[in-house]
Structures are given as C-alpha cells and as structure tokens.
Amino acid sequence: MAQMVETLEQQHKTDETALITGSEAIAVACKLADVDVITAYPIRPYDTVMQYVSKLVSHGELDCEYIVAEGEHSQFEIVKHASAVGARVFCGSSGVGWMYAMEALTVTPALRIPMVAMVGNRALDDPGAFGVEHNDALTVRDLGWMLVWVDTAQEALDTALIAYRVAEDRRIFLPCAISCDGAFLTHSQALVKIPAQEKVNEFLPRYNRGDLLLHPDNPITVAPQVNEDWVMEIRRQNYAAMERTTAVIKEAYADFERIFGRSYGNPFFEEYMTEDADIVLMGMGTLSIPMKVAIRQMRKEGKKIGFVRLRWFRPFPAEALAKSLGRFKAVGVVDRDYSFGSPYMSGVVTHEVRTALYSAPGPKPPVLCFICGLGGREVTLPDITRMTESVYQAAEGKAQPLTQWIGLRE
Amino acid sequence: MATYVNIEPTQNLEPFKGVKKLPLEEYFTSGHRTCQGCESALVMKMMVKAAGPRTIVLGSTGCMYVANTTYYSTSWVVPWMHTQLGSSGSAALGTAAGLKALMRKGKIKNEPINVIAFCGDGGGADMGLGAISATLTHPDYNCLILMYDNESYANTDIQLSGSTPWGANTTFSTPGPAKRIMHHRWKKNMAGMMAAGHPTCRYVATICMSYGLHGMNSIRKALTIGGPTFIHSLDPCPKGWDYDPIQSHELGELAVNTGVWPLYEVEDGVLRLTGRTQQIADKRIPRQPVRDYLLRQGRFAHFTDDDIDYFQSKVDEMWHKWLIPGAIPFHKEIEADNPPA
Prior knowledge:
The structure holds 2 protein chains of 2 kinds. Chain A contains 14 helices and 16 strands. Chain A is an alpha/beta fold. Chain A folds into 2 domains: about 10-260, 3-Layer(aba) Sandwich (Rossmann fold); about 270-405, 3-Layer(aba) Sandwich (Rossmann fold). In chain A, the strands form 3 sheets. Chain A has a 7-stranded mixed sheet, with helices on both faces. In chain A, strands 10-12-11-14-15-16 form a 6-stranded mixed sheet, sandwiched between helices. The longest helix of chain A has about 35 residues, at about 225-260. The radius of gyration of chain A is 22 Å and the shape is globular. Chain B is of the alpha/beta class. Helix content of chain B is about 35%, strand content about 15%. In chain B, strand 7 and strand 8 form a beta hairpin. The interface between A and B is large, with 44 and 44 residues. Strand 9 (about 220) of chain A pairs parallel with strand 2 of chain B, so a sheet runs across the interface.
C-alpha cells in the first residue's frame, strides 16, 4: 500500500506525454485547472473540445457540472452566471456560433467575469465553410476580452492554464478567449507534455471572486441601471483593468517558466529568423507552420526573411511590436480575416499593426496587407513567395498595392 | 426519479397559514422607482418575502430591472444580479450549477440556497422561451423561473409581446381608421406550454398577486419541491393597461373572476385548479363577463361590442372546449374561429 501511495505521488509530480489534438489539449487543461462548470453546444470545429470534456466527465477524470445548452447564447450566459457565484468556468464556440452568443460575449467582460473560452476559428456563414478565418474571435476585440492565438497543441494547453491565471487575477477579472485555428489545430494531433497536477496547483491559485461574489453572505446588487451618471466611470475601470493585463501576463509567463520549465520567450509575439532579416511577414495562429517552412526554403536562396507570429491580440503589444518591426525595411501582414470598407480595404491585423507602428517614434517601414488562407484555404509556398516578392519591392521603395488577395482563383 | 439525477436538498418552506402569519422582514424594500400601482413590484416583494434571506435573485432586463436597481439605491436586500433579456433560464441554471459544483467539491459551505430568476413577458414568452424550456429539462438543478406578465414590453413604452391580449392597443399596435384591431394574435399559453412540454419539471403554477397568500405559497412550493420550476404571474399594469393606479388589485381579481386568467398548478404532472378558479369551476361562484374586465382598461377602449363578444367567445372556449380547461388548448373537434371584421 505504502508503495502504491508513493507511485501515485510520483505520478502526481511527473509530467506525462500524450498524442492529442489542440482541442483535447484544452480539455486536459480544464481537468488540470479543476474547472467547476462547463457548457457545450455543437458547432464545428471547436466542439471536439466538448466531446473530450464529455469523456473526461463520464470517466470520472473531471469533476464539473457539464451542461449541454440549447444554443450558444445560453451556453455563454450559463457559465457567466456560474462564474458570478465563484465557479471556475469554461466555454467555447466557433464561427457563427460565437456570433450567436454575441450578447453574452458583450456583457461578460463588462461584468468582470474571468471566463476562459476556446474559439475554434471558423469562417462566418454564408456561404458555408468549416475552415479557419479569424473574423469570429476578432468581433469581440473592442469589448474587454483578452484574445490570444496559439499554434500548437502544447501551446494551447499551456496558454489555457495561463489564461485562467491572468483572467482570475483580481487586478484583471476579464475573460480570455484562446483562438485555435479550425482543423489545422483543433483536429491535428501532436505530442503534448501534460504537466503534473502538483505543478498546476502551484501555478494556478483557486478562483476567488472576493468582494464581487454573488452569495447570501455577500448580498450585493450586480449590474444595476447606471445610465449617464456612472457608466463612464465603470467603463474606465475596464480600461484600467485591460491596461494592467500586459504586466500580469508577463508575470504569469515568468512563473510558468519557473514552475513548468517551459519558456515562450516574449509572451506577446514570437519572432522567427528575424535577427538578420531585411523584411518580415507576420500573422497569427497556425499560419506559422507553412510560413516557417517557406522561410527556411527561401533562406537557402539567400533571402533574409523573418516571421513574426502575433500571439496576444488583446492586449495588443503596440510598443514592443513597433520597436521590433521598426528594424525591418518592410512588413507584410497576412490577414486570415477581412474588414470590408475599412481604410485601404485591409484586414484587421494589418490595421492594428499600422496603428501601432505609425503612432510610435522610430522608423516606419511600409506595411502591406495580404488577405490569404480564408475559409481554411491552404497558404502555399507559391503564395508566400508572391507575398515576399511584393514586400521586397516595397522595401526598395517601389509602390505596391496596400491590400492584396493572395491565392485567389483568377 | 432515476438515480442518475442528483438533486440537492432544498429549503423546506412550509406554506404560510395566513396573512397575519407572514414574516415582517422585507427583502425588497425602498429605493425602487416603479410606477404607482405597479403590481409587478408587489410580485417582487412577495416573491422574496416568500423565499427568505438565503436566496439569490437574477433579474432579466425589463421593468423590474430598470426600475428596481438604480445605482446606489438598489431595493434588493438579497443578492441580486442582472441577466440579459432572454437569459432568465440560463441565469437560473448557471447560478444553480455554480453553487452545486462549489458545494459538492467543498469549495463553499454546503447549504440549500434558493435561486430565483425572473423575467417579464417579453423576456420570457418571447425572447427567453428557448432558455427557459432548456432549464426546465434539467432535473438536477434547483431553481425557480418566475415570469411577471404585465402583457407588454412596458419598460420600453408599451409595445406588444407574445403575451399581449388580442386587440390591445399598444405603441406597436395603435388602432386607426383603416385597422381597428392591429394586434390579432392570441396570448401565448405559457404555463400550459411549460407544464405540458417538460415532463420532468415538477411544478408549474399560475398566480396573481391580488391573491397574495396564494401567490406566495405557490412560490414556496416551487422552491421546496426541487428541480427547476416555473411560475407565471399576471400583473395588472396601470401604464400599459391604461387605468387609474388605484384599481390594480381589483383588475387582478377581475382577470381571475372573469376566467381570463385561470389559476392552477401542475405538481408532478397532476393538474389542480386553485383559488377562485377552482370555485368558478365548481360553480360555487359565477364566472363574470369579460366585458367587466375589458372596459375598465384604456387599451381596449376601441373595442366594439363584436370585439368584446369575440373575446368572450375565446374565453368561453378555453373553459368549455379545451380538453384540459384553462391549461391545454387541445380540442376534440375543429372549432370555427370568426374574429370580427
């Protein structure tokens, strides 16, 4: 018996490795985080996370209230209210499902609810397309959600733990959505190190709703009618909370590295082969995979190209990114999204990058927008070559269209 | 009930024996800004008086949100939280699920806490119908959804809802020379629909706070029985129904006594007519003509005699032709429907 206890204790302390998908990695994070209430509703591709949650619950590995809702609006409202009484919650959606929940998504940050959600990024209807586009998650970018894009199953698991830690920090109390590209990440298996429970417990304190707890022992009135008398001051509190996120995210990544021994370097964006690069391409999510392959290929041809993968979109690392991008002669942003009618008809990420870069002191290289890989269309080597050529032209001072659609049937 | 349904104990709230036995404590007090004669405010007051202090109330958008929770002057003594217009069902479910998980895992003290979510007729019979329905299918969460029905979107200027009576004048159905009856839909049968459609829901009732003790005891039963429950309250509204505020109580009585608003409860699938409705059904008191009720309200002032007769015929049909009178509108045979021109 003593030996058995020892073995269990040993298991508790040791990491394991498993072959799982990005969705499954997030379900495992829910188990490790001892999430209390989870709500599901089917839509591809995020729903694979809930299929795995269901298995974890039925196998007794995850002790939570697991509720299948009747629509995404209810799905997000249920966990919002569970969080208000002090429960740690998880939820998620994709594409138009996320849009169906929009009202709930609006009030969640306003109520300072530290929900963690997964978005399995998917093209918005119509026409039907299961594949990845980022417009779904991006719709909440102004509302107080923290938004992070990950590119591997390992990063999905780790980021989910970090997301709980940051969201539930009393200085923050804002929700966090983890974006996983549909199919490319949600459905792709990879070897993932599953951290030991003991390490997770050390990293992630219990959710403490504190003075905002809705309970008969703390009989507060939450979200009253404030009108013009107070709404500005309350909005300003959310502004301040979002302002604090940068520091708290840095703290969390530092602690993550200390406890789990895995480092992500700069938490906000990843740079690949940028040290000596003349130009860079940048984007979010699993775009990094074809991009890194292409860059290695092009480097063999002597082209000094780098890649910047933006991880945290909210908070947007404006200053750090501007400083970094200022080093290059030109920047090409690959948008897996669109913003019809916006300035120069560019994509959402491009606009943010231009604003960050052009508002900062220092060099201001040209920023081109490439709309590419919509609806899960593969971003190919010829696509990347084409984009690179255009960015080189811009670097040489030759005028290029500010927005180009790449990989489009002509 | 099957063993895989895990219901936590509820508070054992015995029925109040009489008005004089009611507790003096109030959990919905001053600070609200409801209209004079607002019956829904009375429902709120009685609801939490019946439930007691160990209660969490969730309120969906509507009069009872906007008028009751002015910042810094909340009228709620018990914890209260806003929920979205269509979210009363989800708010009840989420709150109950959160408490249940935390108690089971030993993260908070294990004790029965009442969870009540309220919604108006717009939030309940229209937008929130799906979420309420879903919640009533979850037998393992103790919660009550109370729909206070003032028969219009009264907070936003009296627009018709799915629960507005046929023909009523609202700001979205103003009568004019070309069309006298702009609203020609019949009121949704919410309580009947909830009872008939959710076989594991253990308690559904209709109430009217003109009969306060009856209403409060229905609420206590709904909270004690366990699982999700639903109560539909008809609330006269001076602003929306257009009458002198002094008459609110009387209009509630008239709604019941004319048979427009039958009082009943469905407990574990067993239907019981209650209060005055039972007495009317037993022919111990007469059912008054609907004319007495309609002509007291400005919203029906444009009604012709034909309109009143038609309204009466539909109420008579509910009492005599429905297979389950007052509750379920199934018929043995097709009935002719001849609305006035």
